[in-house]
Structure formats: structure tokens, C-alpha cells
Write a structure and sequence with these properties.
With about 220 residues, the protein is mainly α. It contains nine helices and no strands.
Length: about 220
């Protein structure tokens, strides 16, 4: 149970800090990217030795494919991650309402400037890069346990900065679901992109990591 609670807390922190930087702090792309990146770094250092610090269903899928998680653990992790994201977005919505701001602007991911097809492959690409980094830096043979959370956080920050004006830079089905559920609108109707594309990217990264020797 400890590892499932750790996944809940870690995902909660990721969504709370990241979307909070968007809607409460009104951050620029650098601030938003660093908020997400530092949140994942801090939570990975805090809970990496408890649950592995996935905080993302696409990461957990890659771990399942590469036999770092069992099917039972995978299901428990994903449920915990989605619940953490929903809880964080519910609190953000309450805070936004208390400030008198629009409660349909909760840091949700969407792609108003590009097509769904472009958004899909962008999310596949950035998630692939992100999860490949995770698999390599956490590899027993090739990784560095002490520096892995920092590398993961920096990778997430930079990829979000790059993709922010394209897709919002999700890389994470749970991160997108919480805000979309609470805000509704096109973010919810477009959620299929943020569900499927990161999972595809995660699966591809799992096989790529294995090819590079991450599981040897």
C-alpha cells in the first residue's frame, strides 16, 4: 500500500505544482517547465525508493513492458496516479474560484493552434524521449541512482518548455485527465490524444531502452 500512496502523492504534487504555476502564478514557459520538472525531481528523491517514482501511467506502462512492474502493480499505480491528478485539480479549481478567476482555466492541456494529428505525434515524440531518459538513468547497469531524479526533472522541464505552445506538453495521461475532467470543454473532448499518444511513446521507449541495454 505504501507504494500506491507514494504514487498518489507524487502525481498530486506534479499536477498541483505544475498547473498551479500556470493558473495561480501565471508563469511564463520557463517557470511552468521548471515547476513540473522540479516537482518530479523532488518527488522522485522523496519516493523513488518506495515506488520507483513513476507518477505517470505512460512510465508505468514502460516499466510493465520491461518487467520492472507486475501487472497488479501497474494497475494499482495507474489508479493511484489518476486519483492524485484528480485530487490536485479539484483543489486548484477551488483556489481558482476563491481568487475569482475562471474555473474552466485549470492548466489543462489542449492544442488550439495545431491539428489533432500533429498534436498526437508531438506527444508521442516528447513522451518517447522523456521515458527513454527515465529508463536509461534508472537502469541497474547503465544508470546513476543518485543523479537520476535530477536528469528526469530536467528532461521533463525542457520538453514541456518546447511543447507548451503546441500541445501544452503533457507526456502524462494522468496529468492531463485531472484538469480536463474539472475544466471540461475541448480539453476533455481532446483527451484521447493525451491518453493514447503518451502510452504509445512509453511503449516505444520501453523497446528502445531494451535495445540500448537498459534491462540487461
Amino acid at each position: 500500500m505504501q507504494k500506491y500512496v507514494a504514487e498518489f502523492i507524487g502525481t498530486f504534487m506534479l499536477v498541483f505544482a505544475g498547473t498551479g504555476a500556470v493558473v495561480l502564478a501565471k508563469g511564463d514557459p520557463l517557470t511552468i517547465g521548471l515547476a513540473f520538472g522540479l516537482a518530479i525531481t523532488i518527488m522522485a528523491y522523496a519516493f523513488g525508493n518506495v515506488s520507483g517514482g513513476n507518477f505517470n501511467p505512460a512510465v508505468s506502462l514502460a516499466m510493465l513492458i520491461n518487467n520492472r512492474l507486475s501487472l497488479t502493480e501497474f494497475v494499482g499505480y495507474v489508479i493511484s496516479q489518476f486519483l492524485g491528478a484528480i485530487a490536485a485539480s479539484a483543489i486548484i479549481k477551488t483556489l481558482v474560484g476563491d481568487l475569482g478567476l475562471a474555473t474552466n482555466q485549470l492548466g489543462q492541456t489542449d492544442f488550439p493552434k495545431i491539428s489533432a494529428g500533429t498534436a498526437f505525434w508531438v506527444e508521442v515524440l516528447i513522451t518517447f524521449i522523456f521515458i527513454l531518459v527515465i529508463l536509461m538513468v534508472t537502469s541497474d547497469r547503465l544508470g546513476n541512482a543518485n543523479l537520476a531524479p535530477l536528469a528526469i526533472g530536467l528532461a521533463l522541464a525542457f520538453l514541456i518548455i518546447v511543447a507548451l505552445n503546441l500541445t501544452g506538453g503533457s507526456l502524462n495521461p494522468a496529468r492531463s485527465f485531472g484538469p480536463a475532467l474539472m475544466a471540461g470543454g475541448s480539453a476533455l473532448s481532446h483527451y484521447w490524444v493525451y491518453l493514447l499518444a503518451p502510452l504509445v511513446g512509453g511503449a516505444l521507449a520501453a523497446f528502445a531502452g531494451r535495445w540500448f541495454g537498459s534491462e540487461a
